[in-house]
């Protein structure tokens, strides 16, 4: 039954993308950028709905009051394709720094370009990165919300963290609040996994880290904040979903946390 539901979801997910692109593309490219954003938001909402109705996976958000007005940086833990779009309906005017290869995908790349997303060559240095930072500051000065994954790539739930220092440089240069976000999307929609799992889980938006800290101190504080909240939420998610099959990384981390509690 899980496999059948997953196949049905995957089919509906891609049919939804294709259908919306066919129907809404003319409207999207005729509208001004901000008004056109209702189309990606609608797609994200419908995809969340498909996950709930077909797979049985649903999330609730805590801490929306922690989102500051104006420009800020969202710093979520990254586990799944799901977390790249699931929160779009709840964000005012987000902007992503993304690998430039995504801009080359027909139609998708055009959608992304219209929203003034910021492409970057991950191996770039020097003048290229200076230009990226300039573009980022311009978008933030316009009151947009930057989404950047501090670990750079997807990590399995409970896996050993691997944070990249780039977010500390952006924090230093842009001077806006950083909002940490934790959730265990990967327990329900795993990386490169066909099967999706039902369940209920929380997304926690944590209090913002205000600008002004030294980059090293900020980086240490951000990691500690995200990892503590992630560990607490992993325990709660496992308790709330006792029949959920956990990946080895999550099983190992839960055992470590239990051992720390005992000792």
TrEMBL record:
Gene Ontology MF: a single term: 1-acylglycerol-3-phosphate O-acyltransferase activity
Which key words are in the record? Acyltransferase, Membrane, Transferase, Transmembrane, Transmembrane helix
Q: Where are the transmembrane segments?
A: 12-31
Q: Which PANTHER family match?
A: 1-ACYL-SN-GLYCEROL-3-PHOSPHATE ACYLTRANSFERASE
Q: This chain belongs to which protein, by name?
A: 1-acyl-sn-glycerol-3-phosphate acyltransferase
Q: Which organism is it from?
A: Neorhizobium huautlense
Q: Name one Pfam family in it.
A: Acyltransferase
List the lineage, top down.
Bacteria, Pseudomonadati, Pseudomonadota, Alphaproteobacteria, Hyphomicrobiales
User: What EC number(s) does this enzyme carry?
Assistant: 2.3.1.51
Boundaries of every Phospholipid/glycerol acyltransferase domain copy: 72-186
From the UniProt record, give the pathway where this protein acts.
Lipid metabolism
């Amino acid at each position: 039954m899980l496999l059948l539901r997953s196949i049905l979801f995957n089919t509906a997910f891609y049919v939804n993308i294709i259908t919306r692109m066919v129907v809404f593309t003319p409207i999207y490219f005729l509208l001004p950028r901000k008004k056109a954003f209702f189309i990606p938001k609608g797609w994200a909402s419908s995809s969340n709905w498909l996950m709930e109705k077909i797979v049985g996976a649903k999330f609730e958000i805590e801490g929306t009051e922690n989102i500051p007005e104006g420009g800020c940086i969202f710093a979520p833990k990254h586990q799944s394709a799901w977390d790249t779009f699931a929160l779009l309906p709840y964000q005012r005017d987000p902007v992503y720094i993304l690998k430039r290869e995504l801009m080359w995908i027909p139609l998708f790349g055009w959608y992304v370009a219209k929203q003034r997303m910021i492409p970057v060559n991950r191996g770039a240095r020097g003048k290229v990165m200076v230009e990226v930072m300039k573009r980022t500051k311009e978008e933030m000065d316009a009151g947009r919300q930057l989404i950047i994954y501090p670990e750079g790539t997807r990590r399995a739930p409970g896996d050993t963290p691997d944070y990249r220092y780039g977010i500390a440089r952006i924090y230093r240069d842009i001077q806006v609040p950083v909002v940490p976000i934790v959730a265990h999307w990967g327990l329900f929609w795993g990386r490169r996994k066909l099967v999706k799992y039902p369940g209920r889980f929380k997304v926690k938006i944590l209090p913002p880290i205000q600008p002004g800290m030294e980059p090293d101190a900020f980086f240490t504080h951000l990691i500690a904040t995200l990892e503590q909240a992630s560990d607490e939420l992993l325990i709660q998610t496992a308790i709330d979903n006792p029949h959920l099959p956990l990946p080895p990384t999550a099983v190992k981390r839960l055992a470590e946390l239990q051992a720390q509690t005992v000792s």
